[in-house]
Amino acid sequence: MTKLLSTLLLLCTVLIFGQTQLKVFNKTNKKPIENAAVYCDDNLLGKTNYEGSLSFKTKCKK
User: Fold this and answer.
1) For residue 3, what are the CA distances in angstroms to 10, 14, 15, 17, 50?
2) Is 2 inside a domain boundary?
3) Which of the residues 7, 26, 29, 62 has an alpha carbon 20 to 30 A from that of 13?
4) Domain membership of residue 35 as a residue range
């Protein structure tokens, strides 16, 4: 019973505090795109770093 509750609590924590991470690459040369703006529903989620990576939290459905 304790293992089930622990697993359930861990799963809920991951779902609540989960982050989404993405990488943006150039289609032709496969190099990461630095400072690319990422939007969802006209809201700026953030800009990519020099590696083309962005981590964000959102409740955006698309």
Assistant:
1) 11, 17, 18, 21, 42
2) no
3) 62
4) 19-62
59 domain residue, yes or no:
yes
CA distance 53 to 22: 6
In a domain, 11, yes or no: no
Question: How many domains, the chain?
Answer: 1
Q: What is the pLDDT of residues 1-60, one digit of tens each?
A: 676 666 656 555 545 555 677 888 888 998 999 999 988 888 888 899 999 888 887 777
* Tokens 């609540």 -> residue: 16
55 in any annotated domain? yes
Q: Are 40 and 50 in contact (CB under 8 A)?
A: no
